[in-house]
Design goal:
303 residues, mainly alpha, 3 strands, binds heme C
Length: 303
């Protein structure tokens, strides 16, 4: 056999084995994902959480739904909570937040089941919610959780079917690699740390900042969202580094959240939901900024 032929056969074998290996990896990974999404968790509904008709509780719940947890954002459950816009994420799939009003999911869930999905990412069926970022806001204490459920119960029923929810293979792989939390209950794994009363401190800001992580990264240094299509803007660096928020004041930060005006004079891309974050109160904005400023400065892009 000629040397060239031997080399070619060798290369062919390596490429072939590589493809088989990759195929096997993808298959095993997708199976593990599906099996995990089928798991029924032991965690019971939080029946101690009960909706009330108290006006102050409902107002607090509305604030949480809008400003803190972002339930009402257009790409999640929408302003009327009757379901969001279908969000096309290219090879990741298409996600639409369901209708939470009494005309939709709200009719099927008990108060305790609503509280359980917020805190542990577990659906009525006992299985994991898909992609709902409960890990971002499951730190709310019982009082705030009850307020949120009270607000959900107070909104008018809307008769609207749920939009499409389709996951691509890439989404399953990224989830299993820990790059994208889609299998929410597995991510949370029953572990929660609850916040105390709201206060204008970095310690409280740490909780609020969890909702920035899905886009800006768990290390807050920004970079492309794994698997996201190229036309989505890249989240920036929120640490006090030259490439991030170094030199920003509280006023600069508030202007960004309230008006979408960046310190460099440019307008913020609408992908970042400031229609929600802009509604944070002064205590929350101060706490959030104090926390970001307390982070170790990191160069852009490490996520
Ligand atoms: C849905 C994704 C998403 C979420 C959630 C999100 N951001 Fe952003 N953010 C972005 C993107 C994308 C950009 C860059 C936008 C652009 O280029 O105009 C950005 C830009 C910023 C900037 C501007 C930086 C600069 O140099 O001008 C700040 C500050 C910021 N985000 C803070 C936050 C904070 C604080 C939170 C959480 C409360 C948050 N973001 C949550 C996507 C997000």
């Amino acid at each position: 056999m000629g040397v060239l032929k031997k080399v070619l056969i060798g290369v062919g074998a390596v490429v072939g084995l590589g493809a088989l290996g990759l195929g096997g990896f993808v298959f095993v990974t997708a199976r593990a994902f599906d099996a995990s999404m089928d798991k029924v968790y032991d965690q019971k509904p939080l029946d101690q959480i009960k909706a009330s008709k108290d006006e102050a509780a409902i107002a607090r719940g509305k604030h949480i739904a809008e400003a803190v947890a972002g339930c009402t954002s257009k790409d999640c459950h929408g302003k009327d909570l009757a379901g969001g816009n279908p969000l096309s994420m290219g090879p990741l799939g298409t996600l639409t937040g369901p209708n939470l009003t009494g005309g939709g999911v709200g009719a099927a869930y008990t108060d305790g089941e609503l509280a359980r999905i917020v805190r542990f990412g577990i659906k009525k069926s006992g299985k994991s919610a898909v992609f709902m970022p409960a890990q971002d806001f499951n730190w709310m204490n019982d009082e705030d959780l009850a307020a949120l459920v009270s607000y959900l119960r107070s909104v008018p029923n809307v008769d609207k079917p749920n939009g499409p929810l389709k996951l691509g293979l890439l989404a399953k792989i990224l989830d299993r690699q820990g790059a994208l939390p889609i299998d929410v209950a597995r991510k949370i794994d029953g572990k929660v740390e609850l916040a105390g009363k709201p206060e204008a401190t970095a310690a409280y800001g740490k909780f609020l900042a969890k909702s920035c992580m899905g886009c800006h990264g768990e290390g807050f240094s920004g970079g492309k969202i794994p698997g996201a299509p190229g036309d989505l803007p890249v989240p920036l660096n929120l640490t006090p580094h030259e490439s991030g928020l170094k030199g920003w004041t509280q006023e600069d930060f508030n202007k960004l959240l309230e008006k979408g005006d960046r310190k460099n004079g440019k307008k913020l891309h609408e992908f970042m939901p400031i229609e929600n974050y802009g509604l944070m109160d002064a205590t929350e904005k101060t706490a959030l900024f104090a926390y970001l400023m307390s982070l170790p400065p990191k160069p852009f892009g490490g996520r």
